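Input record (one chain):
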Amino acid sequence: MPVRYFSIFSFDTIRVKEIFQVGLPAALEQVIFQIGITAFLILVAYYGTEAYAAYGIGVQILSFSFVIGFGFSIAGATLVGQHLGAQNKDQAKRAGWGAMRLSIISMTFFGVLITVFAEPLARYMIDNDEVVRLTVIFIWLLGSMQPLMAIEFSLGGALRGAGDTKTPLAITLTCLLFIRVFLAVIFFLLDARIEIIFSTLVADYIVKGFLYVARFRSDRWMNAIKSKEAG
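The corresponding structure, as predicted from the sequence alone:
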C-alpha cells in the first residue's frame, strides 16, 4: 500500500479550529502566569536580596510537593478525557473528584512534613539568619495552602482534559493578577512588611480553590468540546 507523504500537509479546518479553541487559552494561561509571577517577583525584589532569596529557596523546597500535584494534574486530564471520549460523563466526574482527593492527601502530607522541618531545610540551603527566617515564614504560608494547591492541580488538569481550557485561563487571570499581584502592589504602596506580601499567596489560593470546585460541580465543563459530527 503506497504511503501518502503529502497527507501530513493536509488540514481539516474543523479540527484545526478545535485545536486552537483548546490550545490558545492554555497558551495564554501560561503567558499570564509568567507575567504575574514576574510582576510578583519584582515586588519581592524591592525588599532586598534576603526576601528574594527566601522566596526562591521556599519554592525550591516545596517543589517536592508540587511535582506530586503535577502528576495528579496529568492523571486527572488523562482519565477525564478518556471517559468523556467514551461518552461516560459519570465516570469522568468521578475520576476528577478522585484525582482531587488523592492529590489533597498526598500534597497535604508532604506539605506538613516540609513545614515541620522548614527551619533545618532552610538552614541547609543557606547560612543566613534573615533569609532562613523569611524562608520559614514563606514555607509556613505556602505549606498551609497545599490542600488548595492540590485542588488547582487536580481539577485544573481535569478541566483541561475535558477541553475546558478557558476556565483555568480565567481563574489564573483573576487570582494571580487581580488578587495576588494587585494586593501585593497595594501592600507595597502602604510600606507593608515582606511577610504581608508573601501572605497574598493565601488569598490567591483560597479563591482559586473555591472557583475550581464551583466550576467542576457545575458539570458545564463536560460540554466544553461539542462534537462536530453529531448534528
